Amino acid sequence: MAAAKLEDADALIDSVETFIFDCDGVIWKGDKLIDDGVPETLDLLRSKGKRLVFLTNNSTRSRKQYGSKFRTLGLTVDEEEIFSSSFAAAAYLQSIHFPKDKKVYVIGEEGIINELELAGFQCLGGPSDADKKIELTPGFYMEHDKDVGAVVVGFDRYFNYYKVQYGTLCIRENPGCLFIATSRDTVFQLNGVQEWAGGGSMVGAILGSTKQEPVVVGKPSTFMMDYIAKKFGITTSQICMVGDMLDTDILFGQNGGCKTLLVLSGVTSHEMLQSHNNSIHPDLYTNQISDLLAVKAATV
């Protein structure tokens, strides 16, 4: 079924109580807002009593760091409204009562380390392993910490062979060691200029060496949808998921039973949406989130 173009913003806004926004490609690209209408759009939705939630698969920052980015871009967003996949990793470990005497090896950046430590977990790896190398000399044996009970893999600009081997050893040799992925995104809009290989490439390397499927805590897994719905006491049918990626954002909304709105300001083009190869169809699509401002004309 082909997606319908957003024509009646008023009807959409009135039909839900919560909007969940993806960030990269929806709110911003790199370090710039998608368009000048973003702040006005968010203000309008708040003025109509809508709850706003911001959900990103980008694990490089913590919620606190994302709060700072929103402020830098001139947006007033409370830290409690922000949910990153780095936070999701920590929330997942809390939800399964991960033992506090066990450690977490991180293949990723400081956002994951910050959120895990904030939740009280012992971490190793992450940025501190960025420059480590392995010399494959005859007889070399690589040691690893036997107390690691989970390996968390996210987007990592400093990905290297040392991290692959260390994570692989933990998963293969530590009994019951978990393999957790913050996301399996194929692309990442790192600087707003071009698309870059996403966190899925790092996850794929560990999957390839361990032959173990990860537990995915970011979109399109419903873990964060369930978490957000429970935290705020929302029925998922009262949520509209707004995103720019079909296989993460829109699928996430569909998996969670939400309304879905695709914006064409990020990864997905109109041609990709309409392609016969595409099997994921949002309820509605539009060019950018400021198209929701069309509601103003009906309320004046």
UniProtKB/TrEMBL annotation:
This is Phosphoglycolate phosphatase. It is found in: Plastid, Chloroplast. Divalent metal ions. Mg(2+) is the most effective. It catalyses: 2-phosphoglycolate + H2O = glycolate + phosphate. Keywords: Acetylation, Chloroplast, Hydrolase, Magnesium, Metal-binding, Phosphoprotein, Photorespiration, Plastid, Transit peptide. GO terms for molecular function: metal ion binding; phosphoglycolate phosphatase activity. One of its GO terms (biological process) is photorespiration. Substrate binds at residue 219. It comes from the Eukaryota. CDD domains: HAD_Pase_UmpH-like. Mg(2+) binds at residues 22, 24, 244. Its EC number is 3.1.3.18. Its cofactor is Mg(2+). Pfam families: Hydrolase_6 (PF13344), Hydrolase_like (PF13242).
